[in-house]
UniProtKB/TrEMBL annotation:
Biochemical pathway: Protein modification; protein ubiquitination
Bias (Pro residues): 1-13
The species this protein was found in: Hyaloscypha bicolor E
UniProt cross-references to PANTHER family, sorted A to Z: UBIQUITIN CONJUGATION FACTOR E4 B, UBIQUITINATION FACTOR E4
Disordered: region residues: 1-111
Compositional bias per record (Low complexity), positions renumbered to this chain: 45-59
Protein name as it appears in the record: U-box domain-containing protein
Domain U-box: start-end pairs: 985-1059
Family: Belongs to the ubiquitin conjugation factor E4 family.
Reactions listed under catalytic activity: S-ubiquitinyl-[E2 ubiquitin-conjugating enzyme]-L-cysteine + [acceptor protein]-L-lysine = [E2 ubiquitin-conjugating enzyme]-L-cysteine + N(6)-ubiquitinyl-[acceptor protein]-L-lysine
MF GO annotations: peptidyl-prolyl cis-trans isomerase activity; ubiquitin-ubiquitin ligase activity
One Pfam family in the UniProt entry: Ufd2P_core
Coiled coil: 529-580
Length: 1074
């Protein structure tokens, strides 16, 4: 029957009464925790099942049991006939109030006197706690709280001629009748939970000798909890149809504990205390937690999510609850990466994030016009909210991993399932529909970082607890498909197929889980910022392009409507991307979170260096370089992302939050970079090695008062860096000539640009200058390769940059009004100009850095740059550049706003003059300049002098030195011309086949048998390790001496010079005689 129907005067006996009695009796017996004699046909109110705090009543004292009459209806106050004839004990019926035909109006209760009878206390207290009465005329208590009248219990007492009083022996019947009277639109717990709270307050209020009062209250507490269990698990006991929305603790857990219907800690403590003896507690708990999770799965950070988190925090304080939750099938029931967030118990808690679409839209509405200050304020607000939420998540997870081994393992399994399901997050084009969200994985990463904090101490004292063999013990973290640091797939598979004995500790478990979480979580989100920037730029350009099309469709409403629709879609996508970017920056630029992440990566760095060096390395110890040629297997077979996470995290913080690094970074970062750049063969991926250079580069960016960045001072002053850094940088400078990628030609310039920046930073320390000198003398081949590549770069970028300016000059002239260009022609020209300007700017930046490096090196090592193998190339490069800057072609270098391209012709000229002066101390350089038949033009030197003097670009001393050098060039040129005339036609067998010049030291190439000058082939091999005639591999050590030919050339040259000298002498004599 429905809730509004009135109960009949004489309700019939419930048809399933017997079954109900049996179930309830069995449940109450289990909940009572005490064994008591049972009558042949026990009743719902019998003392044998109602109390464990009072002595059991023997069968001799009990009247014969009568058949209980239970009528379970849906009416607000159903007439429930409960018969349980029990001896009133020591009560004297004459001393206690009884029911009268016409009860008096309710009287205001007075405080109990000190000598109040226990029976009176019991009646008064139970009535007050459960807000029930046996007096039909008493509708409210002394505090004006509405009371529930219990007619069935009163009738039963009257039938038995028992005192009309509430007793703990009859309390179960009283609770049942009262709870059954609650409207079905409310849960029975709406009544029972406030009763529980009044019990606990009364218990706390007992002072001194309890004299039996505590027994009454404890029994009330026990029965109240039992009925709470029934209300959730068996609502039919209260005449209610099961209702999943009401028959659960979930809504009550969402209330504050202080609220009347809120679940308090003592309620949860009582639940846990009964956990083992009552099997109903576990399903009741699980139902409540699942309810919390499922409701939260539909929410975002915009909604009132905090009560759900607080409820889970409260429950996680109890180890037995945590174990029960972790063992529930729904704890890890998900079939996809997106499903983890919504369909596992903890997933919805971790899903709450500022990166949810609803949140980004709310906080960053109209992002295109949003004020920067407002953006910052919104980001800070979200950041503070997220920090609080992440602390709560960490608190919850901490309890899960500490409550029991079972809950710990289940929790680690859950985290492993997350990272293993999201491998495709690092794909080139990840599909968000198949992966967990960024916000979810960021929360996972942060919480795992928090779990690692206990072993992230400043002295790295617990790093030795991280067991690399974890990966060979059937680990939770799947790495089979991951690229390894220096091993192919087949070797890796074979290595990991061998299972190592032993058990991995918790530190190792959480360490590798956190590494994986960083890779698939925070690092993936970091890299996504670049993608967002590209997407925003594309959409912005697309919107401008569409707007430019508007005039075309002014006369066509249909086409204009289509254009408007396209614009709307592009605009919506642009706003969404911008809002999301602002939110991502708000999350990632969290200094607290990044500081914790940085500390974890420092631990990973020290651990990785220990594996590679097979030592107990800490930042206060020195690594011996180079490392052994034989690499440790444990290092080779590690996932590549171990190192990638380190450099990615450090580079991100260096770039966006450098102040976090100031207080946290140590020498281990420098050790990592130098070690693996020196022993670059330890790492297979050249781009991963390049990131080590980027790390050093970002570490030298000026920040606040540190003009040399976070790492600059350490790179300058640390002995380990002084000993190894310059060689490591030069070595990698050479290596990046060939990366194996189709973009290697252009990649090398970006990498070398960063190398130049680091070298410029450290060059103030003369130790590095001495190191360079040492390299040129003791490792000549290595040094020559470095210089040769430097010259290649300088020649290329100079040529590319300086040839772009004539094109820019012409395009700017064509676009300058007035012009006769059509709209389409103008658009095409503007696009062409933009491309040329972008290229010129990039190449000019590289040119400036390359020239800067040459200035530094030629000043320190002029002799090394004038070795026979490279001196002619050096001379040709500086002569060509001088001709471009001051020769006839210089007129085409004039462009609008040259500073826009970082192009300053006067400064560039001055720097090249300095290179001339640095190298001019070498006579071989002077001869090479004079012998440069392509670009040596005396008029260029004169024109350069005029420009230098007019603009005061060099000091007086430098100008004097320059004039002297010009004279030497002129003298050398005259001598060169004279020698060429003296030698006349050189026999072909004496000519170098490549340079077409007279050989000085001819050698034979071993395979092609070609004869070539040693300086020519040596110069060739600096760039290309192959025979230039048949492309067979070749080293300079392989060439064969040809002393016979060398002797012939020397003799022939001497003979020709002697003849020329004699001829000039004869001419002079003839002239004088004449």
């Amino acid at each position: 029957m429905d809730n509004d129907q009135q109960p009949p005067p004489a309700p019939p006996e419930a048809p399933d009464k017997e079954k109900m009695d049996q179930i309830r009796r069995r449940r109450l017996e289990k909940l009572s925790g005490a064994s008591a004699p049972k009558s042949t046909q026990p009743t719902l109110g019998s003392t044998g099942i109602s109390s464990s705090s009072t002595p059991p009543i023997s069968s001799e004292n009990a009247e014969p049991a009568v058949k209980p009459k239970i009528n379970i209806t849906k009416a607000p106050t159903p007439p429930i006939a409960l018969s349980s004839k029990v001896s009133p004990g020591t009560q004297d019926a004459a001393d206690l109030p009884t029911a009268s035909p016409r009860p008096n109006p309710p009287k205001k209760q007075t405080p109990a006197s000190v000598d109040e009878l226990l029976e009176a206390y019991e009646n008064r207290t139970l009535g007050s706690i459960f807000r029930i009465t046996l007096d039909p005329n008493q509708t409210v208590d002394s505090s004006n709280h509405k009371l529930i009248y219990l007619p069935n219990l009163r009738q039963e007492l009257e039938d038995e001629k028992s005192p009309i009083m509430l007793t703990k022996e009859r309390l179960d019947s009283a609770i049942l009748e009262a709870a059954s009277a609650i409207p079905h639109s409310k849960g029975a717990l709406d009544y029972l939970i406030p009763c529980w709270k009044r019990i606990m307050r009364t218990l706390k209020g007992i002072r001194g000798y309890a004299s039996g009062k505590d027994a009454i209250l404890k029994e009330a507490k026990r029965l109240c909890m039992s009925n709470c269990v029934f209300a959730v698990e068996m609502p039919e006991f209260f005449g209610r149809e099961p209702n999943s929305a009401l028959d659960t603790l979930t809504p009550y857990l969402l209330l504050e504990p202080e609220e009347e219907r809120g679940i308090s800690p003592d309620f949860l403590a009582e639940m846990e205390a009964r956990f083992e003896e009552d099997e109903s507690i576990k399903p009741m708990l699980r139902k409540a937690v699942i309810g919390l999770s499922q409701q939260l799965a539909t929410m975002s950070m915009n909604d009132n999510y905090k009560p759900y988190v607080h409820a889970m925090k409260a429950l996680s304080q109890f180890p037995k609850f945590v174990s029960a939750i972790a063992e529930d099938p729904l704890f890890q029931m998900a079939t996809s990466a997106p499903g983890i967030e919504k369909h596992t118990i903890l997933g919805p808690f971790f899903r709450i994030s500022p990166l949810q679409a609803e949140v980004t839209k709310e906080y960053f509405a109209a992002p295109k016009t949003m004020d920067k200050r407002k953006v910052h304020t919104s980001q800070e607000a979200l950041r503070l909210t997220l920090q609080t939420h992440q602390r709560d998540l960490l608190d919850i997870v901490n309890h899960f991993v500490r409550s029991s081994p079972e809950s710990r393992n289940k929790t680690l399994d859950w985290f492993a399932y997350i990272v293993n399901s999201n491998h495709k997050r690092r794909a080139l084009r990840p599909n968000p529909e198949e992966l967990s969200s960024d916000g979810f994985l960021m929360n996972v990463t942060v919480v795992l970082d928090g779990l690692c904090e206990p072993f992230m101490d400043a002295t790295f004292s617990k790093v030795n607890r991280i067991d690399v063999d974890y990966l060979r013990r059937n680990p939770r973290v799947e790495i089979k498909d991951e690229t390894k640091l220096n091993a192919d797939e087949s070797a890796s598979t074979e290595y990991y197929e061998t299972v190592v004995s032993g058990t991995s500790n918790f530190i190792s478990e959480v360490f590798f889980l956190t590494l994986a979480a960083h890779h698939y979580g925070s690092e993936a989100t970091n890299s996504m910022l670049k993608s967002l920037d590209r997407e925003i730029k594309y959409l912005t350009d697309k919107a401008k392009e569409l707007e430019a099309e508007r005039p075309k469709f002014a006369g066509s409403p249909f086409n204009m409507a289509r254009l408007e629709e396209q614009l709307r879609r592009v605009s919506d996508a642009l706003e969404k991307a911008m809002s999301f970017k602002f939110a991502v920056e708000g999350v990632l630029f969290d200094k607290v979170m990044q500081a914790r992440s940085l500390n974890f990566m420092r631990v990973v760095t020290v651990w990785l260096l220990r594996i590679a060096t097979q030592s107990d390395y800490t930042p206060d110890k020195t690594i011996k370089l180079p490392l052994p040629a034989q690499q440790p297997d444990a290092f080779r077979f590690l996932p590549e992302y171990v190192l990638e996470d380190i450099v990615g995290n450090f580079n991100f913080i260096f770039r966006f939050l450098p102040d976090v690094m100031i207080s946290a970074v140590g020498d281990e970062v420098i050790a990592l970079c130098i070690t693996f750049l020196t022993n670059s063969e330890y790492i297979k991926n050249p781009y991963l090695k390049a990131k080590l250079v980027s790390l050093l580069f970002h570490g030298t960016w000026p920040i606040y008062h540190r003009t040399k960045g976070v790492l600059g001072d350490s790179l300058i002053g640390t002995k380990f860096a002084n000993d190894h850094l310059l060689h490591a940088l030069m070595k990698f400078y050479i290596e990046v000539e060939s990366t194996g990628a189709h973009t290697q030609f252009y990649d090398k310039f970006n990498i070398r640009y960063e190398i130049f920046q680091v070298i410029k930073c450290i060059w103030t320390n003369t130790v590095y200058q001495d190191r360079l000198t040492q390299e040129s003398k003791t490792n000549t081949e290595f040094f020559l390769r470095f210089v040769n590549l430097l010259l290649n770069d300088a020649t290329y970028v100079l040529d590319e940059a300086l040839t772009k300016f004539p094109k820019i000059h012409d395009l700017q002239a064509e676009l300058r009004p007035p012009n006769s260009l059509t709209a389409e022609q103008r658009t095409a020209k503007e696009e062409e100009l933009a491309t040329a300007e972008g290229q010129a700017q990039s190449y000019m930046q590289l040119t400036n850095e390359t020239v800067s490096m040459m200035k530094l090196f030629t000043k320190t090592l002029s002799a090394s740059f004038t070795m026979p193998e490279i001196v002619e190339r050096v001379a040709a490069m500086v002569d060509y550049t001088l001709d471009t800057l001051v020769g006839p072609k210089s007129l085409n270098l004039k462009v609008d706003d040259p500073k826009k391209y970082q192009f300053d012709p006067k400064t560039l000229l001055s720097e090249f003059i300095e290179i001339y002066l640095n190298l001019g101390v070498s006579e071989s350089f002077v001869e090479a300049v004079a012998g440069d038949g392509r670009s040596y033009k005396p008029e260029n030197f004169e024109r350069a002098s005029r420009i230098l003097t007019r603009h005061g670009l060099r000091s007086t001393e430098d100008m004097a030195a320059w004039e002297n050098l010009k004279g030497r060039f002129k003298t050398a040129k005259e001598l060169e011309d004279q020698n060429e005339e003296d030698l006349g036609d050189i026999p072909d067998e004496y000519l170098d086949p490549i340079m077409a010049t007279l050989m000085k030291d001819p050698v034979i190439l071993p395979v092609s048998k070609q004869i070539i000058d040693r300086s020519t082939i040596r110069s060739h091999l600096l760039s290309d390790p192959h025979d230039p005639f048949n492309r067979s591999p070749l080293k300079i050590e392989d060439v064969i001496e040809n002393p016979e030919l060398k002797a012939k050339i020397v003799a022939w040259r001497a003979e020709m010079m002697q003849k020329a000298k004699a001829a000039r002498g004869d001419d002079l004599m003839d002239t004088s005689a004449g």
